[in-house]
Amino acid sequence: MNPLSLEQISTQLESPNSRDRLLALASLREIPAEDAVPLIKKVLDDELLQVRSMAVFALGVKQTEECYPILVKLLETDPDYGIRADAAGALGYLGDIRAFEPLVRAFYEDTQWLVRFSAAVSLGNLKDIRAKQVLLEALKSEETVIKQAAIAALGEIGATDTVEQILNFANSEDWLIRQRLAEALGKLNTPKSISALKFLEKDPHPQVSQAANLSRKLLETSD
């Protein structure tokens, strides 16, 4: 099947059939960012949440100067928390360091856990060490997934001085937390990291033990 032209995609994005609009957005995958973004903007206010969500994600992948301010505005003002969470996630994909402060605000001020979770993940994706204190706060969250995100993000930003704090989760009842811990330790090269990974290699859950084994080998080969 021949790829759709820009004109065909534009027409399809205006179709009353939501499936057409979703397919049109998917067709933008191979389109250069400067051509794709104006088309994506056409459906940012679509009546179907799935179309809006896909469009927001696309702005994180198709990176132009327009994308950052649009995503920040969505993160800060959109009434739908799912879209705010999508915008937070897209800012992480965008990798623009200016997103640090909007993401921190979203983590502290948004009342929805999904938005706070996406903000924590994206702070890790930015790899900015300034996020350390926010992520340590996230470890205290009542939401398990936010703890998972914070542990992973501390690994991403290379916060080796937080190893002591995240090791408190080595005996967590949630195996995904233990897996995130094992993965994060592979990016935090300290003597305690190696000891903890040897402990986690004996974890009863196979995905935890496998992650720990891989992380330990990574640390040992990087010395």
TrEMBL record:
One of its GO terms (cellular component) is phycobilisome. GO terms for molecular function: lyase activity; oxidoreductase activity. It holds the Pfam family HEAT_PBS. Keywords: Antenna complex, Lyase, Phycobilisome. This is PBS lyase HEAT domain protein repeat-containing protein.
